[in-house]
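[job 4471] stage=fold_predict status=RUNNING
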Amino acid sequence: MFSNSFLVAVSALSALAVASPIASEQQGLTFSLTRQATVHKSKVSPAMLAMRVHDKYNVAPSAELVAALSSQEGSVNATNIEEVTYNVPLTIGSQTFNLIFDTGSSDLWVYSNRLPSSETAGHDVYKPGKTASLMKGSTFKISYVGGDAATGLVYADKVAFGAATVTRQAVEAATSINKAAVQQFNEGESDGILGMASSHLNTIRPTQQTTLFDTIKSSLASPVFTTKFLKLADGAIDFGFIDSSKYVGNITYVPVNPSPGFWRFHVGGYSIGSTAGTARATIGACIADTGTSLMYLPNAVVSEYWARVKGAAYDKTQHAWLFPCSHASSLPDFNLDIAGGHTVTVPGEEMNLGQVTQGSAKCYGGLQNSNGEKLNILGDVFLRASFMVWDRTESVPRLGFAKPNY
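[job 4471] inference complete, writing C-alpha cells
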C-alpha cells in the first residue's frame, strides 16, 4: 500500500536536461511497490549468461568464453536454467509498462512503436502521446562488447512511479534492439529497463539525463529505497522510508565507491558452511546489481566453494561450474563479511539454477567465476539473502545490510 497518496510534479530546468528536478510544493513522499517475479526456464546457456554480464559492464570476454559461445551457436538443446526476472510497473503518459528494476544501469528505456512488430509481440509498446515531446538531437545507445543492445530516440514525457509523478522525465524509446536482448526480454516478460545506478552512467547524448530515482529523490521523505526479495515470489521495494518490520537486528552500512557510478562497495572475508575460507582473506570491490541473476566472484573463492560439493567441476565448454543435481539439497551456505561484524549468508539452495539442459544430471551453479575484479557482481542470488538499503542521503552513497524478517 502507498504510505502517501499525493503526487509530486517535477518540472524541467531546460529543454535538454528535462529530468533535473526543482523544488516541489509537496514533499515527504513514501510509497511501496511490488517487484513482480516471473519464474522461467531460460533458453540461454551458462556461457550466454556470462556474456550478458560482460556486455553489461563492457568488459571484453576471454577467449574461453568466446569459444564456448561459438560452440553453442545453432544448438537446438532446450536449456532448463531457472531464472527469475523481477519487473516493476511504471506508467509513461497513459501507458503502463513492466520494467526490469536494475541497479546496474542508468537508463529508462522501453520498447517503442518504431520497432518491427516481430520484435514487439507480447510486449507493451511505447507510443508517444500528447504528454510527450521529442528531444531533438538526443539519442541513446546501450553499447555492448559485441555490438549495440538497444539504440533509439529520447522523449520528455510524464512518468508515474508509485506515488510520484514526474511531468517531464527523459524516456528512451528503442528503435533497434539486438537479438540477444529480444530473447532476454521475451523470457522475462519485460518491456524495458528502469536503471537505478548513478546518473553519471546514463547513455543519452549529447547531454546526459538524470535517472528517475535522482529525479524524485528530493521529493521523498528520505532519499532511499529498500529491497526485500524472495526466490520464487514477488519482492518488496519501499521508497522514502525504511520499514523496520522487514528486517531483524541492526542495519550495517558501508560506503559506495561513487566514481564508477555503480553501487560498488568493499566486501571482506568469506566462509563456506561453518568453515572459514582460506583461498582469500578479502574479496574486494563488488557491485550490487538487481539486474543480474547470479553471483560472480574471484575464481579462487568460487573454486573453493565448489570443491566442497562432491562431483562439482568447471566445464570449459559451458564456461561454468556444474554440479550433480542429486546434491542440490545439500549445497553448503556461502557467507560474506560486509563490515562491522555483519555477515550475509547465502543459503545453499540459492546456488542451484536447475539443469543445464533438459534431462541432464548436471545443474548450473549460482556462484560463478568473475575472471577479474571488474566483474565481481552480487546479483539476485546474493540480494535475496539480505534486506538492503540503497541510500543517497549524503554526497557519498551507501548500502545498508540487515537480516530479512521472513
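[job 4471] summary: The chain is about 15% helix and 40% strand.
[job 4471] exit 0
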